[in-house]
Amino acid sequence: MIQKISKTSIRNVAIYLRLSKDDGDREESESISNQRAIILDYIKNNFNYEKYYEYVDDGVSGATFNRPGFKKMITELKINKIDLVITKNLARFARNYIDAGDYIEKLFPDNNIRYIAILDGIDNFEDRVANEFAPIKGVFNELFCKETSKSVKKTKRKKMQDGIYSCNTAPYGYKKDSDNPSKLVIDKEASKIVKRIFELSLKGKTAKEIADIFNKEELLTPSEYLKIRGLENRTKKMWTRTMVFRILANEVYTGRCVRGKTQNISYKSKKRIYIKRNEQIKTENTHEAIIDIDLFNSVHKQNKFGKVYNNEIQKITTKFDDYMYCGICGKKMAKRRSRNYLNIHCPERNESDLLCSNKELYKYEDLEKIIIKNIEKNFEDYFRKNNLTPSLIRKYNDMKIKDIDDELKILNKDLGILKFKISKLYSDRLQESISEETYKNKYKDLTDKRTELKETIKKLEEDKDRLNSENKNAVKIKQIKKILKNINKDTLSMEDVGELIEKINVFENNIHIFYKFENMPSKIISCKN
Question: pTM for the full model?
């Protein structure tokens, strides 16, 4: 007689499947369908369960936990009442055991969730030798990830050096060769626009003027054109100065392939950094040129392309940097040095006339004086009008809170006595010590008193919450008054400013200040003050 294997009964199972390009030649053995088949067979043979939930990340590296499927699984553990999380092996769960250990050894056990990595023999609910080797296996998994990343980088760099174009879409003016997708061929229609951009620039037209010309002529933007060709979903329906600049700055139009402009900080991070021009990979004559090299150089010389602009302006911070916005289009205001002054303006003013009508250039120093003056005056008026004195508010509220606490103590005691009386009354009725009529009369009387008592307690607790809120407000008022004393000092931080205001809109020579303080109305003032 064959002995049946006893199965463990659980509620629900979360099966997690992951595959990425890092898996290389093992893609077939690690495929999603292969993982799914192994896991489903395992849980069928070992568990009685109600339901399983599947979470998949296809094409996502195990070096990061910023994975949509994984994050969804963690979010839904309690919602779906998961008792077991299971993967084919530890590498499918993660290749970084330092962070994976927080889930396997802390989060899962704390929530009474079992984790199993089938092929590695890891089970956090059992005392197994394999569990002890999990961190070591994790180190090897992470090392594999690192080495794979290096190998991929070397392969990509070799392709770049050979002039192979491996981007998903070709640059505007070109299209990919249907016989050889890694080679660029000229797109006759789009290349005419590229040539015209360079010719107009050589005649002295600025990038913004070129953008405005194209918008008036209703020419398709690069992204709109790509969408028509079925290559791009995102569309920008307006030509801008930046769009024209990018075309004028792109050496690809001279027949040169420039690659390696950016790279990831590390194999664990998606953040990219820009590479210096002299370190970028440039390969000559990889495809037919749209622009003659002499025309390209003439345009760049005329427009001072390649000039290293003064980045000091980016390092200049002011009190209101983080809070100043264009009141027309909502963009954060930009700043630039003009002679001895710092000016602010809507960043769209130089892109296209159609994007925003806020064309003013504002002297920051003048705006700051007006803003500070009005902030001081508005807070002073607000505090005086509402008679807000922090120390007196807290002293009065603390006395009221003490009285409420004393009263609540008595009322809660009375409520406890009432509950006991109701319980005893019910017991007396069960033992038939009192009649049904007497029970009903007394029960109604006691429950009415209980309801009245609960409502009184609730009102007192609401009063206490309000007084505590006022106390917090008093602390905030004290903090704000301290900030206001230092508002004219250079040491005042932007964080301090953030305690006072939500944002400042600048438009049509007006300043609209939105205050962060409770019930404080916004104010529109003139820049001419």
Answer: 0.46
